[in-house]
Amino acid sequence: MWKCPKCGRIFEKTKQPHSCQKVPLEQHFKNKEKAKELFDLLVHRINEAIGRCQIISIPCCIHLFGSYDFLAMLPKKESLEVRFALDRKIESPRLKQGVWMSKEIYKNCVEIASGEEIDGQLIDWLEKSYHLKDKT
User: Fold this and answer.
1) What is the pTM assigned to this prediction?
2) Is residue 82 within 8 Å of 71, Cβ to Cβ?
3) Taking 90 as the threshold, does the pLDDT of residue 20 lie above it?
4) How far apart are CA 84 and CA 73, in angstroms?
5) Residue 18 vs residues 4, 62, 69, 103: alpha-carbon distances, Å
C-alpha cells in the first residue's frame, strides 16, 4: 500500500495517479436531500454491521475507505449510485451496470432510491467488498 504524501489517501500501487483535491461533503448534496438521507443511512449501516470507515469527498464522488478504498457513491437528486468491487459480477436485477477492472475484480453498480433497499443483501455485498483485499 502507498500513502500519498500530499493528500494522505492510501492506494494499492505506488504513485497511483489520482486527484489530491478534496471538496466539502455537503457540496455533493446541494439540492439532493433524499440522497443525503440515503447516504447517512448507508454509512450508519456499514459502520454498524461491517466496520468503521473513513469518508473521502473528492470532486467526482464520495469514497468510503476501510482497509482500502472499497466503495464510491454518486449522489443524485432522488437516489444514490453505489459502486463497489467484488471478485465477481453480482447476479441480481439490482445490478445497474458493471465492468471487470482486472482478472480478479469486478466493479458492481447499484442505485438506491429508498431506505428499504439498504437491506441485508446489499450489506452482505458491501461486507464482502470491505474485506475483499484482506484475502490478498
Assistant:
1) 0.84
2) yes
3) no
4) 9
5) 9, 14, 13, 22
